[in-house]
Amino acid sequence: MRQSLPLLTLVTAAVVSARPSARAADCCALLSAIYPDKVAYPGTTAYSEESGNYWSSTCTVPALTPGCYFIPDEVSEVSTAVKLFTDNECKFSIRGGGHHSTPAAANNDGGVTIAFSHFKQRDVDPVNNIVHVGPGNRLWEVYSATDPYDKVAVLGRYAQVGTGLLLGAGLSYLNNPEGLSVDSVVAHEVVLANGTVVVASANSHPDLHKALKGGGDNFGVVTRYDLKIFDRPHNVLGGLVTYGEEAMPFYDDLTYDYHVNAAVNDKETHILPQWAFNGATGKRESFTPCYYGKDQPNLPPSLQPWVEVPWVHNTIRNTTELAPLAFENFDGYSNGDAQQQRTITIFADREFFHEVSERWYQFSQRFANIEGFYALHCKMPITPFMIEKGLQAGGNVLGLEGIDRPISILYFGVTTKNLADSDPVFAAHEQFVEELRSVAASRGLLHRYIMWNYSGFNQQVIGSYGDANVAFMKDVSRRYDPTGVFQRLVGGQKLPQ
Ligand SMILES: Cc1cc2nc3c(=O)[nH]c(=O)nc-3n(C[C@H](O)[C@H](O)[C@H](O)COP(=O)(O)OP(=O)(O)OC[C@H]3O[C@@H](n4cnc5c(N)ncnc54)[C@H](O)[C@@H]3O)c2cc1C
Ligand SMILES: *[C@@H]1O[C@H](CO)[C@@H](O)[C@H](O)[C@H]1NC(C)=O
Ligand SMILES: *[C@@H]1O[C@H](CO)[C@@H](O)[C@H](O)[C@H]1NC(C)=O
Ligand SMILES: *[C@@H]1O[C@H](CO)[C@@H](O)[C@H](O)[C@H]1NC(C)=O
Question: What residue stretch is flagged as signal peptide (predicted)?
Answer without folding.
Answer: 1-24
